[in-house]
Amino acid sequence: MVDQTRPAPPAAPVSDSRSPFFTNGIGGIDRLDGATLGVKSPAPAVGSGLGVDRATGSPDAGAPSDTTIGRREGNAPSGGGGIGATPERSDGLSPWAMGSGPETLRDACGGTGGGPFGAVNGTGGGTGDRFSLTVCHSSGAPARVTRPKPLYAPALLRFCTPALVHLMSLRELLALGTASQVPTRHRNHNGYFLRWDDEGFLFDPGEGTQRQMAYGELAASSITRIFVTHFHGDHCLGLAGIVQRLSLDRVPHPVTVYYPASGEVFFQRLRHASIYHAAVDLRPRALDDARDALVCIDETETLRFWAHPLRHSVPTLGYRVEEKATRKMLPERLAAHGIAGPRIGELQRAGSLAAGDTVVTLDDVSVARPGSAFAFVMDTRACPGAVALARDADLLLMEATYTAEDQHLADAHDHASSADAARTALEAGAHRLAMAHFSQRYLSLEQHLAEARALFAETVALRDLDRVTIPRRRA
């Protein structure tokens, strides 16, 4: 969505259908293997464009064809440039950076450091530290910029080596809606989808979630789990349609639904809201919402799911998705102990292995790799439960219904302000904060951002259909 105070964008110079790489002014990929994409950047200040800048109609943002990816000279500021190259941070290395225009937040992936990827916003290059295509708004352009279409892995696979395909497994948040009680012309009711490798988690599907999924190019079959914090309408009215859509699309896998046990009657009403043929394996999981503790509610081979009660006017749960820690094997240490081939797997399974006259343990030949974490905190005032959920989270998604200036309203209605969200992130040691669930009284989010960033710099205010990547942690 776009700020209603800004002028309408000009007509697109070309049709999006001409190329799967059209990204409406979003940048491109820089310093990728030249043999893979046929593009090689000779300097950090050169970025690869993937389409035409629809804000300006400039053709030098990339070549609009199915077989070539254009390259353009970037006017990156000193220090490297990239998406994060802004007046606040010219080196492009900040995870979140603010541009020169109003509400111009973006996920910064440029700069001169690290890894094979670097997203470019048509104004610079840099070798980014991770793969990310999250660009929320325009960068001080006189005309507004259309929301960028996502660049999905399937569209890029024909250019990729197997190693690159592995790197492109996504951990990405899609904001389907960011309004609170009342949807507006610019914000849909709540709804958030977290893609985590081969699973997909839908949080608090409010009214209109199915339509937002269409805009976000999200198939119902992507959903493997649904999390409901509480049963106020803006957090659950879309559940009835989602449940029926799962059956309509004959989703082949089970879908687990987590919700507070005190809302069982409302869950059943939504599940059976109208006549339909139930064809999906829906697995309800009513959770104890009276125990004031962080509780593991489910786990898989690689993930754990946690819940903790929050402080709202009705029983409410917050959720945490946490990747289990793994270990990174060190080839040089394995070779030093003469361990290779199937014996490596044996060591990983057993934890230790006889090698000659010594016993080699995993600690001897590997290092711990911590898992990533995501916290979802909706409809609560600031409380210890929110901090427990957000502890060391790579991304905390928290409500900021009101500005700090309207803190009295937040307190009166058991909601959080922008300052509450920022203080929660700071106390929990979260890496990044994404604010959402904004009251309809606010047309602009600039004040939310200013208040939150004064306390916690790595903050973004989500708008509908924004995407935020969660990078994998490294050992």
Give a quick set of tags describing it:
single chain, 22 strands, seven-stranded mixed sheet, alpha/beta, 475 residues, globular, 3 domains, 13 helices, disordered N terminus, Metallo-beta-lactamase, Chain A
Overview of the molecule:
Helix 10 crosses helix 12 and helix 12 packs parallel to helix 13. The chain is 19% helix and 21% strand. By secondary structure, the protein is an alpha/beta fold. A hairpin with a 6-residue loop joins strand 3 and strand 4. It has 13 helices and 22 strands.
State the end-to-end CA separation.
Answer: 38 Å
Q: Judging from the principal axes of the Cα atoms, what is the shape?
A: globular
Structural category is alpha/beta
CATH topology of the largest domain: Metallo-beta-lactamase, Chain A
Strand order of the largest sheet: 10-9-8-7-6-5-22
Radius of gyration: 23 Å
Could you describe the largest sheet, including whether it forms a barrel? 7 strands, mixed
Give the number of helices. Answer: 13
Instruction: Estimate the strand proportion.
Output: 15-25%
**Total strand count, please?**
22
The average pLDDT value, as a whole number, equals 73
What's the CATH first level of the largest domain?
A: Alpha Beta
Unreliable residue runs: 1-168
At CATH's second level, what is the architecture of the largest domain? 4-Layer Sandwich
| CATH homologous superfamily descriptor of the largest domain | Ribonuclease Z/Hydroxyacylglutathione hydrolase-like
Can you tell me the number of structural domains?
Answer: 3
Helicity, as a percent range? 10-25%
